Amino acid sequence: MPGPHDIRQLPADRESLASLIALHHLCLPSRLYATPQQQAAFLDEVLDALAGRESLVLASFADASPVAYKIAYRTGNRHETLYSWLGGVHPSHRGRGHARALLLCQHQLASAMGVTQVETHVWGDNTAMLVLNLRQGFHVAGTVAGPDKPGVRVILRKSLVAPTLPR
Ligand SMILES: CC(C)(COP(=O)(O)OP(=O)(O)OC[C@H]1O[C@@H](n2cnc3c(N)ncnc32)[C@H](O)[C@@H]1OP(=O)(O)O)[C@@H](O)C(=O)NCCC(=O)NCCS
Predict the structure, then answer these.
(1) Which atom of ligand 1 is nearest to the CA of 126?
(2) Which atom of ligand 1 is nearest to the CA of 135?
(3) Is the CB of 88 under 6 A from ligand 1?
(4) 6-159 belongs to which CATH class?
(5) 69 exposed, middle or buried (CB, 10 Å; 0-12, 13-18, 19+)?
(6) Measuring from atom 43 of ligand 1, which residue has the nearest CA?
(7) How many other C-beta atoms can be found within 10 angstroms of the C-beta atom of residue 95?
């Protein structure tokens, strides 16, 4: 695992995901005012989405508690893609390298799984997440209109394999 961060891979079970989804609601301004019922429904949605899929759930811990997380699953016709779905760092722990360390760890483990690319979708106004990803080798592959709010989500992809032909 890169850096001094305490990064752990967690099972995609209700107990682990409940703590990470609680953290998710503290990380995203849009989630801060979700009711307990909405939070519970989102946990069920995440559990449903990961059920039957090969997933990669990572968290970075400080003082025995998760302060950052990254939730991904394998997809694609040939199972070649890791879709990095949810991620964030608790506001009090930002700027300490948790997000970069989690990203690097995710890519290391994804390579070991045999995945050849990572894809993630980021809202166009989410500067921190865009810069984090672009500085770690993602490129813009397109945009999609968001279903739930105005604006676009930027499709970012990063190849995990070295190019074999000159460009
Ligand atoms: C994006 C986010 C994960 C960054 O977390 P972090 O722990 O502060 O990031 P790190 O300390 O690991 O920073 C790594 C790099 O990311 C980039 N970065 C982080 N915050 C940034 C900001 N506010 N503006 C621009 N770039 C930023 C920088 O390149 C930084 O490297 P540098 O410090 O050498 O310049 C955090 O701001 C966050 O949780 N945002 C809300 C969650 C979210 O939007 N999730 C997406 C939807 S699921």
Answers:
(1) 44
(2) 29
(3) yes
(4) alpha beta
(5) buried
(6) 88
(7) 8
Domain boundaries, the chain: 6-159
Give the pLDDT score at 3.
56
Q: Best substitution site from 129, 133, 153, 155 to test ligand 1's pocket, by max atoms within 8 Å of Cβ? A: 129
In this structure, what token pair is assigned to residue 22?
């609680």
- pLDDT confidence of residue 152: 95
Could you tell me if the CB of 27 is within 6 A of ligand 1? Answer: yes
Is the model's pTM score more than 0.70? yes
Pull the structure tokens for residue 96.
């300490």
* C-beta contacts of 10-15 below 8 A and 24+ residues apart: 10/57, 10/58, 10/59, 11/57, 12/47, 12/50, 12/55, 12/57, 14/43, 14/47
Q: What is the pLDDT of residues 137-148, one digit of tens each?
A: 999 999 999 777
